[in-house]
Write a structure and sequence with these properties.
By secondary structure, the protein is an alpha+beta fold. The chain is elongated and about 60 Å long. The protein has a 4-stranded antiparallel beta sheet, covered by helices on one side. Strand 5 (about 40-45) and strand 6 (about 50-55) form a beta hairpin. The chain has 2 domains: about 5-80, Ribosomal protein L6 (Outer Surface Protein A, domain 3), CATH 3.90.930.12; about 85-165, Ribosomal protein L6 (Outer Surface Protein A, domain 3, Alpha-Beta Complex). The N and C termini lie far apart (about 55 Å). Helices cover about 20% and strands about 35% of the residues.
Amino acid sequence: MSRVGKQPISISHGVKVEFKQGVLTVSGPKGTLSRKIHPKILLDIGNHTIVVKIADSSKESRSLHGLTRTLIANMVEGVSNGFKKVLEISGLGFRVNQQMDTLVFNLGYSHPIEYRLPQGVTAQVEKMTKITLESHDKELLGIVAAKIRSFRSPEPYKGKGIRYLKEAIKMKAGKGAK
């Protein structure tokens, strides 16, 4: 049995959990999330907790136990508090501007890159070099942050590019170093 999967998920005040026909719906002050739950996973929903159990002891259901518990915990956390990721842009002339729900990046290419944020993700630009992304869906937030980072990944010689806040880039010595 999974150590992670055994832990109960506490439901904070103001969050409603509903499980019908294999679909778990969690709604709260930040929004609503739905996810289809595998048939080999059983949910025991109480007043203030959710306990994830397995239907049988097959390898597949044991491997899904901890994963499902973590996904449900992220759903509950997201609709109550939300998630945040911060990206930094470093490099001479590299910057970002926000126009409504579109981010316009100048990253040293011959053209600016325009990226429209998907529904459910909000961005805030500070000093044209720092982007704060917020969402109630952790999975969508990670996809958006990774997509933005892929526009200009940090390079190992000068560290220029887009990186997560406090991301450690392993720097390499240039030609002149011996």
